[in-house]
């Protein structure tokens, strides 16, 4: 199987360490056989909106063909931190929102409006759970919180794709940079099947897609091999439940160095083919 789409890519305009230029991305995507793809730089809160404007300008400067689209990756944040930023707290400092000090189980929110997206010419929205919303670093609490965030995103009217469900980083990383135990890396089965079923049903009902993320989940060098196999099976289970899947590399590097061949092998092993992945319709040029 050859993979031919990629709907989760970051350029040098993203607020993290992403560094590829849009011109280089277009060239490398063609070399990798990626025919349908989109740019999705990060926006966590309104503080990041100038980055999205820069991303749009560079995208348009590349004179994009009809199968190259402009998107955005949003983070699930809390209404508490958005209110604090709107009040003038952390002005310009909360690039990743306000990650400490909020009320436990804070109300989830997105940091942009439909008007923001329209003004920037965003064609589709990828949105992901990136951090706990002020709950204890304890397995059951993290699982409950991540599930409620994923459900929020699956049902949000602005979201087209839920990014990398059950991705995790930060707390519980070993000294060698790997995760071996909590919150779910020793056995992905610790997450109740009822949560997976509820998430799948919400995606189907809302016509929202779930992402098969190459760098963050399927091929992450920080995750145990057993978890990565279980995760591929989880994606296959979503497909069987009627969920539309998308493919995302989550590229952050300057060379678009993504092992699409190995990703294809792992996906094929669980019955997922390139034809199973959603395609954004070509734009009217």
Mind explaining what this structure looks like?
The protein has 285 residues and is an alpha/beta fold. The chain has a single domain (5-276), classed as Alpha-Beta Barrel (TIM Barrel). Helices cover 34% and strands 14% of the residues. The chain contains nine helices and nine strands. A seven-stranded parallel β-sheet has the order 1-2-3-6-7-8-9. Strands 4-5 form a two-stranded antiparallel ribbon. Helix 5 packs parallel to helix 6. The chain is globular. The mean pLDDT is 96.
Overview in brief:
With 285 residues, this protein is an alpha/beta fold. The protein contains nine helices and nine strands. It has a single domain (5-276), classed as Alpha-Beta Barrel (TIM Barrel).
- The best one-word shape is globular
What would you say the CATH architecture is? Alpha-Beta Barrel
Q: What is the CATH topology classification name?
A: TIM Barrel
Question: What is the alpha-carbon Rg in Å?
Answer: 18 Å
Mean pLDDT: 96
The major pleated sheet works out as:
7 strands, parallel
Topology:
Blueprint: E1 5-6, H1 22-31, E2 36-43, H2 49-61, E3 68-75, E4 77-78, H3 79-86, E5 108-109, H4 114-119, E6 124-128, H5 139-154, E7 161-163, H6 193-206, E8 209-213, H7 214-218, H8 225-240, E9 245-248, H9 260-269
Parallel strand pairs: 1-2, 2-3, 3-6, 6-7, 7-8, 8-9
Antiparallel strand pairs: 4-5
């Amino acid at each position: 199987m050859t993979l031919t789409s990629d709907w989760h890519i970051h350029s040098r305009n993203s607020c993290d360490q992403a560094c590829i230029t849009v011109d280089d991305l277009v060239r490398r995507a063609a070399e990798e056989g990626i025919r349908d793809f989109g740019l999705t730089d990060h926006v966590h809160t309104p503080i990041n909106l100038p980055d999205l404007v820069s991303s749009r300008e560079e995208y348009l400067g590349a004179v994009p063909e009809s199968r190259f689209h402009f998107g955005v990756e949003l983070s699930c944040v809390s209404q508490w931190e958005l209110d604090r930023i709107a009040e003038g707290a952390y002005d310009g400092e909360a690039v990743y929102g306000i990650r400490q000090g909020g009320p436990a189980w804070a109300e989830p929110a997105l940091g942009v409006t439909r008007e923001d997206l329209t003004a920037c010419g965003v064609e589709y929205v990828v949105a992901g759970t990136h951090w706990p919303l002020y709950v204890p670093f304890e397995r059951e609490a993290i699982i409950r919180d991540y599930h409620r965030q994923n459900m929020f995103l699956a049902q949000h009217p602005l979201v087209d794709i839920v990014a990398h469900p059950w991705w995790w980083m930060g707390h519980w990383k070993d000294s060698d940079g790997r995760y071996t135990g909590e919150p779910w890396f020793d056995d992905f089965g610790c997450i109740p099947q009822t949560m997976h079923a509820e998430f799948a049903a919400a995606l189907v009902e809302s016509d929202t897609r779930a992402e098969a993320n190459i760098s963050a989940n399927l091929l992450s060098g920080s995750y145990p091999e057993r978890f990565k196999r279980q995760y591929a099976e989880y994606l296959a289970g979503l497909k069987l439940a009627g969920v539309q899947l998308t493919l995302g590399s989550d590229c952050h590097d300057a060379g678009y160095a993504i092992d699409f061949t190995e990703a294809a092998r792992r996906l094929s092993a669980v019955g997922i083919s390139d034809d199973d992945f959603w395609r954004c319709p070509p734009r009217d040029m």
